[in-house]
Amino acid sequence: MKAIYYTLSVAWKEIQLILKDRGWLVMLFLLPLLIGGFIGGMNLAVTSSTSEEGRQGGILLKVGLVNQDPGAFGTEVSKAIQDIDQLQVQVFSSADQAVERVAQGEITSAIILPADFSEKINAYTPTEIEVMVDPAQPESASIVAGIMNQVVSEVGLWGEVQYGVRSIFEESGLLAQASSEEQRAIKAQNLGVIMTRINDMRRNPAILVVSEDLQGAKIQGGIELFIAYQFAGLTVMFIFFIVAMCSNSLLGEREAGTIRRLLSAPVPRGAIIAGKILAFMLLGCMQVVIMFGVANLLLGAPLGRSPLALVVMTLVVTFTAAAMGMMVAALAKSASQANSTGLILAFVLAGLGGALPTGKEPLSRAGGFIGVISKLTPHAHAVEGYYRVMAENETIIQILPEIGILLAFGIVFFVIAIWRFRFEG
Amino acid sequence: MKALSITLKDLQLLVKDRGSLFQYFLLPLLFVLIFSGGLSSIGSSTGDTRMALAVVNLDGGTGAQSLLAGIDAAGGVRTELYDQAEAESLLDENKLGRLLFIPADFSAGLSAGRPVTLRLVAHPDASAQETESVMLVLEGVANGMTLESQILASLRQMGDMQAGNPDAAQAFSTDRLVAQASNQFEQSRTRPLIVVKQTVPAQQGESEAMPDFGKAVLSGVTVLFVFLSAQTAARSIYEEKKVGSFRRLMAAPLSRPALLAGKILPNFLTALVQILVIFLFGSLGLRLIGATPVPFEDAPLAVTLVSIVMALCASALGIVIAAIARTENQIGGMGTLVLWGMGLLGGCIAPAFLLDRYLGPLPKIVPQYWANRAFDDLLLRGLGLQDVALELAILLGFAMLFFVIGLWRFDFE
Question: Is pTM, for the whole model, over 0.90?
Fold first, then answer.
């Protein structure tokens, strides 16, 4: 009973010290929120402006348009591009002018329609639309590519239908026999057919692909899942910043002589270690609550269907981080060395473990050499566990392997800490 | 001379501080590796890593065969055929993540120009990310496939319009139309009528190239970490005040500006070495791991000048932080938040067009924005010194402003 009392007393003292350290509080709470909120918010904004539902999202990219083609196809493509809500289109009379603006970074891309664009389509000869992209903004390239492919698919269909009709008329000799008035009528009919087809293609795609669950309900899209991954990664990364703080605290106390005073109190050695681990676990749990709360309430990230799995994951991850802090304290020679080692570990392991969200899914799923390296870090299993619960609706039973591996990491760290830590500095 | 002695002493202290050395030199390289995708490309597998997609083909016609061949050829997904009852049972048991149903009238519907629906049914526990990737592949293949049916439907419509002309009946016979549509479709697969080609502006005689994420990441990371070093400068100044050595230095015949200049000089020099290390990594390290190296040799003078002015600006910002913060904790907390906030706002991580779209002119109030612009112009757009004159002037203005504010607000006592 006394051991529990001492443990809680040490933990309470530690929490009071932590709450006074504004620098660390900012690092642990505000910095991940700032980074997560900024990147998540930006991604959400882009998705909402490019999605079907968010057509009113407003201008996303400034582009230049150069139509060197005097024909109908050039006019049609130009009109289609200028009608796209996400583009602020500036028309240039020469390609050089537009390219110069791209080179200066003033517009994200220049869309250049060649002079023989219509001529080549009319002759059923392949032609190219050049899209010159600002190399400093490679992200804009995929957006422009998506938009242009949509525009081109309709004009391409026009060219194909026109050629098909013409081929049949020419082969049968019908066109040659027709009077000029009949030829005009045939051309008008051809255009009518094309417009009907394009409108029909827009309204009723010939092949509709739908994704649904077992009950036939529509499955939700991907941005919320990316935000779930992003916040899971950042939360894990910043939980492991506890390593530096925890080891620094333990060695700082030893250097200041307060551990000796505690031991003479007499507070048991185990209670000192357990109390500190408890305090830092609590700190980690608060990080998780705040980060996931913001991700869910403000950015719409899913939290999965198993609160129990989230709670157990959080307890295990925070224990592993605190135990790692104790191990670093046991192996370091001074508080400042422990502090710098803890920070280095926090960043390096976060990078290798995929806690710094760069792709769409955790790095440990990348496969190959880096996938294997990634799985050697506790971070990878922590991110994987959270992601599977939040984004893939897995339960505690399904993430037991991740929980087990993390717990094993934590126990190994803890045993090394107990074995190597010298209370008398 | 005495200011230089302060610099030398601070540099010696810095060399002994492993944490700061890590933040100055190794952390930025780690960020470049991660954000450029270089890390994921190291030793990645070259085998067939395509995702398996279970398919129940209730159609069996040529349309369904084309669809399956298209999915397999699209990359990323490979199809595996299942019997309907078996597949549904495996899906219920979560032994299959997702299942594609090709309806019985798929080929007939396509030929007749009737809309058809492909259903992709996913188990609730399947990776939604993977489901989304499969959907993208299916939609792409479906779009390509509809070209043939669209051409055929159009030709039929045209044939109907010629119904009054007896000569046209033979010309627009079903066989002829199907052959024409099929022929055009086959041609379009190998030789599309319109191609969208992406290029970047040619630099120094270089021919076409594609936009590259690795290159774009490097300048942002450099700017972010050079400005983060302002915190180290602030901490060093604070330490000096805390131990009282500042007061002793005040007794020396040194003006206050000279004293502060001496304090920021070590950070300035370290920041320059930091930039050199990151750029060398960008030029040589990225090449070693197979990523595209960043060309620094195009405008060496301009790159050097921007680096010097940026390092000066970051060091002067350190004085402002040291002058405003009252405790070491404030330097740690406020410094971290302000510097990361400025970095994010200045476009060190998010692309410029997004900042422009969502934040308007706001990013322009931080020096990181101008430093990023200058490096982007020089390293990615291949521009020269005259093109970054404005950015250089503004960065210099920021440096002077920070120095003056620092001098005004700094409590030397």
Answer: no
